[in-house]
Design goal:
alpha+beta, two-stranded antiparallel sheet, globular, 17-stranded mixed sheet, 19 strands
Length: about 290
């Protein structure tokens, strides 16, 4: 049969097209990734995940954003690929190599999956920023057309650069207007994911996100990890909290024993299908 098999998965609505390239390699130019991401003429996704061979782990996961750019890490996607590898191997824990390093995923008794996303990087060079400054209080401010002002974010790198703003009401922030402006601010030479956090009670916060190269998404795993780290550093939460995202509830734990950040949530398989040759030419897709 022509074309290429794929899986459509999501973590709380943060959705992915997953391609397995361990036996049949695949090359996806940015234009092809953007075509697949089109929700009217393609399949639609926030990120495209390509499973490739690895000499260091059970598999390598390559992550492409909806605009065709490559991302360093994807927490919800890591859980989804982890689920596939766990079901394939019959084990309860697997290791996935990414551009952000080696990440592990474990299946929990309640059916959720826990992804160990590594240690947060907090130095200004690691985020990275265009100039030296305190990453707990970035010198950055922006104002929306309606006068809403965002300022004083915290910076965190969780495989991707994140700027986390703290406000009284996350729902009141015009994220669709301010997100792209902040993503492309000169302070961020590699652009940035923009998070908005407001407290909801003890160790529970509301988190909204504008993802670099994607836009507003229902959930962002690496962003949720960054939001928890920033919240703990600012004293908004402890090192273990629940984050209410547009798509549901994520649990994040910044482990004291090894400084790793653990992201806990569902990994859902929506459906399986095939990419047609019009979408993915044979010269790129190989045999399926």
């Amino acid at each position: 049969m022509n074309g290429r098999a794929f899986r459509k998965m999501h973590g709380l609505g943060n959705d992915f097209v997953v391609l397995d390239a361990r036996r049949e390699p695949i090359t996806l130019p940015p234009a092809t990734a953007r075509a697949i991401a089109d929700r009217h003429r393609g399949i639609g996704f926030d990120q495209l995940l390509i499973i490739e061979p690895s000499d260091r782990a059970d598999a390598f996961m390559r992550t492409l954003n909806a605009d065709g750019s490559e991302s360093g890490a994807c927490g919800n996607g890591t859980r989804c690929v982890g689920r596939l590898l766990i079901e394939e191997t019959g084990r309860d824990r697997v290791t996935i190599e990414t551009r952000a390093g080696l990440l592990s995923v474990a299946r929990l008794p309640d059916g959720r999956f826990a992804a160990r996303m590594g240690r947060p990087r907090l130095d200004w060079r690691d985020i990275p920023l265009a100039r030296e400054m305190d990453t707990l209080h970035l010198q950055l401010a922006v104002e929306a057309a309606d006068g809403t002002r965002l300022a004083d974010p915290a910076g965190v790198n969780m495989g991707n650069p994140h700027a986390i703003f703290f406000v009284e009401d996350a729902e009141a922030i015009p994220l669709a207007e301010l997100g792209p402006r902040l993503e492309h601010d000169p302070l961020f030479p590699e652009r940035a994911n923009i998070g908005i956090v407001s407290p909801l009670g003890a160790n529970r916060v509301r988190y909204r996100v504008w993802e670099r190269g994607v836009g507003i998404t229902l959930a962002c795993g690496s962003g949720a990890c960054a939001a928890l780290v920033a919240s703990a550093r600012r004293g908004v939460t402890g090192r273990h909290a629940e984050l209410v995202v547009d798509g549901g509830l994520l649990e994040v734990r910044w482990r004291e024993e090894d400084d790793d950040v653990e992201l806990i949530g569902p990994a859902t398989l929506a459906y399986e299908g095939r990419l047609g040759t019009e979408m993915l030419p044979d010269t790129l897709s190989g045999a399926a």
